[in-house]
Specification:
The protein is an all-beta fold and 155 residues long. It has no helices and eleven strands.
């Protein structure tokens, strides 16, 4: 049995507090039996915390972290402990300033009229879904509006 691998690390600023960030870590399980995985998150400011995956957990977990002061930090995620995840990911994080955090993973972007499906981001893979229209269609008399499975129309 192989240990789950740290697949992706992304950090984004929290819009409510200048020094708070949201950290997302994704793992890849080689087989369904590779269930447990522990990783140490080192935000680069002296604080550290653990993230753990067990059976039934989603591949991507998120955590909030509040830096005590503005600055540029090197955030690292690495396997640790008896059930250590395999691998290491690092990003540079700018907090409390105009610069945005950078990630080693390109931020997924969906085209206009489409929205990112939450929890679909797995490394470089993600899913977009058509956004519902701002207004429903005006159907002719005798037909009714429908919206299902990403399609809209009049029946």
């Amino acid at each position: 049995m192989a240990a789950p691998r740290i697949e992706a690390l992304a950090v984004r600023a929290d819009s409510t507090k200048a020094t708070e960030v949201v950290i997302s870590v994704s793992i890849e399980r080689p087989t369904p039996l590779d269930l447990n995985c522990d990783a140490l998150v080192d935000p680069g400011d002296g604080g550290k915390f653990m993230m753990s995956w067990t059976m039934g957990d989603r591949r991507t977990k998120t955590a909030r972290y509040d830096y005590k002061k503005a600055g540029t930090y090197r955030l690292r995620v690495s396997g640790t402990g008896k059930d250590a995840c395999v691998g290491l990911k690092e990003v540079t994080v700018n907090v409390g300033g105009a610069a945005q955090p950078r990630s080693d993973v390109r931020t997924p972007r969906c085209p206009s009229g489409w929205a990112l499906v939450e929890e679909s981001v797995k490394g470089a893979r993600y899913t977009c879904r058509a956004r519902p229209p701002a207004q429903t269609l005006r159907c002719a008399e005798g037909a009714t509006y429908f919206a299902e499975l990403g399609e809209i129309g009049c029946r």
